[in-house]
Amino acid sequence: MHYFALLLGTESTRPVDPAARAAEMTAYQNFHATAAAAIRAGDALLPSALGARITGGPDAPTVTDGPFAEGAEVAGGYYVFEAENLDDALQLASQIPAAQYGGVEIWPMAGAGQVAPLHGTNWLALLLEPPEAPVAPGSAQWQEGIQRHAEFGKAAGEHIRGGAGLHPPSTATTVRVRNGKPTFTDGPYVEGAEVANGFYILSAADKDRAVEIASMIPATGVELRQLAGISGL
Q1: Which pLDDT band holds residue 185 (cuts at 50, 70, 90)?
Q2: Do the Cβ atoms of 160 and 153 come closer than 8 Å?
Q3: CATH topology of domain 2-226
Q4: pLDDT per residue over 111-145, tens digit each?
Q5: Strand partners, 62
């Protein structure tokens, strides 16, 4: 089974202490060494100020540049794990450094969601839907959506480097570790908030082109974030 892990935390506009950054990089290197057999993809995300949100769907897209809501947790990175079951995936998530100060959302994926080798500039497009909108993989509504995404696939072509649908928010779990003790919160989450329904990894030379491609995705909303390209995966 494959799982999508979204790393969450608050953003700061203050300069990052070099020692703290070095310590965090070491922590992630240690995590990668420990979890290498389970990691199928992943990367950090550049600040949300460099990203965008797209609403309105392909017919009438509206683009809003980042940053997003001040003080709210925003995505800072992602992983794709392969694990035997949810318990194993949650164990992996609890070892991610971001879980120590923020949180990690774990979502069962619909399929392997393999990510092709990445070169140049790449982007995470997180597909968002109202909490009542996501549908279960295999349902009639899901099959209808597959056709629309197939049409997007033809239009976007080789710009798509990977992606997958996600199971409904009731199957998601958020992991947080405080004072060495993990806590687990099952979905669904905040009432009225948009929830993840899938993701794409897109290759595009710049933000304008990435927004153009992401605007064609058949989703109520898309959060577009540039990959940092530092994972080494």
Answers
A1: very high
A2: yes
A3: Alpha-Beta Plaits (3.30.70)
A4: 877 888 899 999 999 999 887 766 677 777 778 88
A5: 55
Burial of 206 (0-12, 13-18, 19+ CB in 10 A): exposed
The domain segmentation of the chain, as residue ranges, is 2-226
How far is Cα 173 from Cα 183, in angstroms, rounded to an integer?
Answer: 10
